[in-house]
Amino acid sequence: MERTFLMVKPDGVQRGLIGEIVSRFEKKGFKLVNAKLIQVDRSLAESHYAELSDKPFFGELVDFITSSPVFGMVWEGENVITTARAMMGATNPSAAAPGTIRNDYAISVGMNIIHGSDSPENAEREIGLWFGGEALSYDKAINKWI
Ligand code: GDP
Ligand code: MG
């Protein structure tokens, strides 16, 4: 079963949106298999966003992610990587479709509430980086109805 790494960024934690965001993925039918509140250090932030290290906003991005705790999660389910990205909406909230998390709660690209892995390779890399690859395996009785 596919797994992805999702993270409520510092703006989402500060604004009290952890519960709202967890709730959306629970109601969708995905299964939460790991989660923790983390005060990110620069080295973790730089590793996580390594692919963006050449971008002009990289320093600002690392400053932001390390500015206040984030809530990291591992979610499991069929096509969860692509579906979670769709539920998040486009990177820039002004281009995100109505009803998506970024359209509903964010205005600026720098503070867009949530991160989600963009490919199976990055999901595995990020679950390794943030959780040492660890996640629970358990059954939910409701799963046969989803
Ligand atoms: P994502 O996968 O949709 O989160 O987008 P990317 O992987 O391309 O970028 C990672 C994060 O960098 C985004 O979620 C934004 O918060 C941030 N970011 C992207 N573009 C910009 C930009 O032009 N300016 C700033 N300040 N941040 C940006
Ligand atoms: Mg990305």
From TrEMBL:
<dbReference type="InterPro" id="IPR001564">
    <property type="entry name" value="Nucleoside_diP_kinase"/>
</dbReference>
<comment type="similarity">
    <text>Belongs to the NDK family.</text>
</comment>
<keyword id="KW-0597">Phosphoprotein</keyword>
<feature type="binding site">
    <location>
        <position position="9"/>
    </location>
    <ligand>
        <name>ATP</name>
    </ligand>
</feature>
<keyword id="KW-0418">Kinase</keyword>
<comment type="subunit">
    <text>Homotetramer.</text>
</comment>
<feature type="domain" description="Nucleoside diphosphate kinase-like">
    <location>
        <begin position="1"/>
        <end position="138"/>
    </location>
</feature>
<keyword id="KW-0479">Metal-binding</keyword>
<comment type="function">
    <text>Major role in the synthesis of nucleoside triphosphates other than ATP. The ATP gamma phosphate is transferred to the NDP beta phosphate via a ping-pong mechanism, using a phosphorylated active-site intermediate.</text>
</comment>
<dbReference type="InterPro" id="IPR023005">
    <property type="entry name" value="Nucleoside_diP_kinase_AS"/>
</dbReference>
<keyword id="KW-0067">ATP-binding</keyword>
<dbReference type="InterPro" id="IPR034907">
    <property type="entry name" value="NDK-like_dom"/>
</dbReference>
<feature type="binding site">
    <location>
        <position position="91"/>
    </location>
    <ligand>
        <name>ATP</name>
    </ligand>
</feature>
<dbReference type="Pfam" id="PF00334">
    <property type="entry name" value="NDK"/>
</dbReference>
<feature type="active site" description="Pros-phosphohistidine intermediate">
    <location>
        <position position="115"/>
    </location>
</feature>
<feature type="binding site">
    <location>
        <position position="112"/>
    </location>
    <ligand>
        <name>ATP</name>
    </ligand>
</feature>
<protein>
    <recommendedName>
        <fullName>Nucleoside diphosphate kinase</fullName>
        <ecNumber>2.7.4.6</ecNumber>
    </recommendedName>
</protein>
<keyword id="KW-0808">Transferase</keyword>
<dbReference type="InterPro" id="IPR036850">
    <property type="entry name" value="NDK-like_dom_sf"/>
</dbReference>
<feature type="binding site">
    <location>
        <position position="85"/>
    </location>
    <ligand>
        <name>ATP</name>
    </ligand>
</feature>
<keyword id="KW-0546">Nucleotide metabolism</keyword>
<dbReference type="GO" id="GO:0004550">
    <property type="term" value="F:nucleoside diphosphate kinase activity"/>
</dbReference>
<feature type="binding site">
    <location>
        <position position="102"/>
    </location>
    <ligand>
        <name>ATP</name>
    </ligand>
</feature>
<keyword id="KW-0547">Nucleotide-binding</keyword>
<keyword id="KW-0460">Magnesium</keyword>
<feature type="binding site">
    <location>
        <position position="57"/>
    </location>
    <ligand>
        <name>ATP</name>
    </ligand>
</feature>
<keyword id="KW-0963">Cytoplasm</keyword>
